[in-house]
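quick one before i forget lol
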Amino acid sequence: MKKLMMSFAALLAATGFAFAETEISFTNKLYMEDAFWGHDDAADENVKFFAPVKNKFDLQLESEKLSGQVKGIVYFMDFGGETYGLAGELKDAWVEFRPIEQIGLAFRENIVAWPSTLPIYDDDLQSGNIGSNGFTAWYAPSPLGGALKIAATVPIDWYLNDATYAVVAPNYFNGKDSEGNNNKFNFGLGAMYEHELFEISFSAGNIINNDARKLGGTVGFPNLFGAVENLNLGFGYEYNKEGDGYSDFINYLTVVGGVGGQNLFNAVLTYEGKGFAITAEGVTNFSEDSKLANETHDIYGALEFDLGLTEQLTLALTGKILSDFTPDDRADGGSTFKNAYMGGAGLAFAVNEHHELGAGFEAGYQNKSYGFAVPVFWKYTY
């Protein structure tokens, strides 16, 4: 439960309209995307699924002094065979106040540098997160015209236990937790510099607690050093001393897997031409020898091609892969994660500037398990 986040959402709604020239945007997407039929290799049987009906909403507010966002998903789904119900997930809720142009005070989840984003998977790595899921204060020196942003951050856990309403993971100042583990105050720093030819960022989390140190960095080249318009290339690196990495990375139709480890590298490429667009992304641990890396895949990659058939009709083709570099006859006796392949095709029709309809076909395959989906959606934008 995120009652504190909902409080910030209410604060955002209550205070935002007090500022002149406030811009508001709202997107609502009603859709189905999960598998309706597949094959379970472990049970050696075909399986029918009730594909959940989902509703994704995204409310954003922007004014001279205040910005904010509330984003979440409501699900209508099958809980255990013949029991259906509603469930919800608040993906993000934040508010940022700028008393002057050079200073920002924010309660938010992320301040992300674009080279660490995964646009196809719709997520990002922590390598480019110069803020945190808590309180962040940033400063942009005037002589550089806002190109440099320096941030100090204090993570706060918004997730509360539904039964006890107790904070699951407090940010301790000192002492031991209920399990006797030593805890130190979690504090982070970050910086981002933007130039017309390149962008760089650096972040350091858990600075005081060396046992859980997190480091990250990104470098991006918008318009490919200014040589090719609309061609953007970015790279990111992430280090987690505890090895958390990005273990929960893929859950796609019948495919379940991930990429994890102490050291993760990512890359992203986007290009938008006349009537078409290309997006590519990838993450790898370069087959490092750590516990989490050995329990996950070593590489994830995805490619999407969007083609404008008409002014209103767009065709999207997407392919994804999860792979493991480790041979089947591993000396440590651990299990090797089988390669997984996912792909799909879809059509999107822009009815007008507010409404968009879409439908497609997707499939996922891993070992001898596979699944199929027929994603459909209605998207409304205000």
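fyi The helical segments are 3-16, 223-226, 291-294.
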